[in-house]
Specification:
mainly alpha, 0% strand
Length: 140
C-alpha cells in the first residue's frame, strides 16, 4: 500500500528541486554573504583554497536540483538520482551536525541540513513504496 499518491510524490520531488536550486544558485549569487552566515563573520572569503570547493559544492547542489526536477517529471526512470541524493543529503546533514558540535559552522547550516534530512525521509518513503513495482519491472 502506497503511503502517498503519485501526484504527491511528484510534488515532493518538484519542491526538492526548487529547494536545491534555490540553495545552490542563491548561495553562488550571494557567495560572500552565504559564507559569513554559514561560518561566521571571520570566514575567509577571498582565498581560492577556501572558496573554490564551496563553489563546486553549491554547483553540485544546484545540479541535484535539476535531477530532482527530472524525477518529478518521470518517477519511474530516475531512481538512481534519488539514491545518490539520499546518500548526499545524509552525509551533508551529518557533517553539518558534527561541525556545529565543534563550533565550526553556525546553526543555519544545521537547519539547512535538517531540511535535506526531511527530504531524505520523504525520498526513502517513495523508494519503499515503489520497490515492488521496480522489482516486477526488472523481473519482467
Amino acid at each position: 500500500m502506497a503511503h502517498l499518491s503519485e501526484k504527491t510524490y511528484r510534488d515532493i520531488f518538484f519542491v526538492g528541486a526548487l529547494w536545491n536550486l534555490m540553495v545552490g544558485l542563491g548561495n553562488l549569487t550571494f557567495f560572500k554573504t552565504s559564507m559569513r552566515i554559514m561560518f561566521g563573520k571571520n570566514a575567509v572569503t577571498n582565498a581560492i583554497t577556501s572558496t573554490l570547493p564551496l563553489r563546486f559544492f553549491y554547483i553540485a547542489v544546484a545540479l541535484f536540483g535539476w535531477g530532482y526536477y527530472m524525477v518529478s517529471r518521470n518517477l519511474k526512470e530516475n531512481r538512481g538520482i534519488i539514491w545518490m541524493g539520499m546518500a548526499a543529503k545524509v552525509i551533508i546533514f551529518g557533517t553539518f551536525v558534527w561541525y556545529y558540535r565543534l563550533r565550526q559552522v553556525k546553526i543555519l547550516a544545521v537547519l539547512a541540513g535538517s531540511v535535506d534530512f526531511v527530504f531524505t525521509i520523504l525520498f526513502a518513503i517513495f523508494m519503499w513504496d515503489t520497490r515492488r513495482k521496480e522489482v516486477r519491472a526488472i523481473a519482467g
